[in-house]
Amino acid sequence: MKRRPVLYIVNFLLPIWFFMCLDVASLFISEKGGEKLSFKVTVMLSVMVLQLILNDILPSTSNKIPLTATYITTIFALMLLSLLETILVMHLMEKDSRSQENGETDCRTAKDFDRNKDLPTAHKGNKG
């Protein structure tokens, strides 16, 4: 029985690499609609399904952890970090937008006070 490395590359390494590229490409999705978070979760679930399928296909060894399992676990950990980063960025953006809404209301109120002080003076100058 001879192992063919091309099968490992085509059935294992390339799909995982494509999922990793999809995860990196998700950085360009807008945060406003919430599609980014659901897309990242979908990619992570796809990697888990692929891992379950490959668990049945690839031979297992009981002596030590296979290199393929280490590889897929590392990729999954990187995707998990990316997902946590996305959650953190979305939380910070929401917090910033709330503080800007409150800050703009205060600035407009201060400008309105300045405009109200100037209006009677300008109005008196136009009448007189």
Q: How large is the count of helical segments?
A: 3
CA distance, first residue to last residue: 106 Å
Instruction: Give the low-pLDDT segments.
Output: none
Q: What is the helix/strand order?
A: HHH
The number of distinct β-strands equals 0
Question: Beta-strand level of the residues, as a percent range?
Answer: under 5%
Helix content: over 70%
Biggest sheet features: none
Helical/strand content category: mainly alpha
Mean pLDDT level:
77
> Radius of gyration, rounded?
28 Å
Tertiary shape: elongated
GO molecular function, one term: transmembrane signaling receptor activity
Organism: Merluccius polli (Benguela hake)
InterPro entries: Neur_channel, Neuro-gated_channel_TM_sf, Neuro_actylchol_rec, Neurotrans-gated_channel_TM
Protein name: 5-hydroxytryptamine receptor 3A
What does this molecule look like?
This protein is an all-alpha fold and 128 residues long. Helix content is 82%, strand content 0%. The chain is built from three helices and no strands. The relative contact order is 0.09.
List its traits.
82% helix; 128 residues; 3 helices
TL;DR of this structure?
By secondary structure, the protein is mainly alpha-helical.
Task: Outline the secondary-structure elements.
Layout: H1 5-25, H2 35-57, H3 67-127
Helix pairs in contact: 1-2, 1-3, 2-3
